[in-house]
Write a structure and sequence with these properties.
By secondary structure, the protein is an alpha+beta fold. It contains two helices and seven strands. The protein has a single domain, classed as Electron Transport, Fmn-binding Protein, Chain A (Pnp Oxidase, Chain A), CATH 2.30.110.10.
Amino acid sequence: MHIAIASYKRSGDSATTAVWFCVSNEKTYFRTIIDSAKVFRIRNNPQVKVAICTETGEVTGQWINGSARILDETDDHLSQAANEIMDNKYGEQRVQMTRWVKEQGKTLVYVEVSCHSLDQ
């Protein structure tokens, strides 16, 4: 299962991406490449919206407004908890994706989204 995360450009237009996610302690977490456009947009404007979607990004659920923040080294315990949940949820496919991204020399970062309830 995926969520669509819509983050906002400086122009106010949204850009939407499908991501793997997990929920822990009423927060939603996803991981992405640290220099991705969505991280740049979230740093400039933490307001986001999320919805359940297909792997290809077709939204199948209701949009929910929220705010996002990029986790840093002071949030290591949150990143570790999210990592464990994501590994259990997505299994070997996620392990392979992580390996491939790291082989490309990319750094991954977790994003925490605070919003109303979001079904897994």
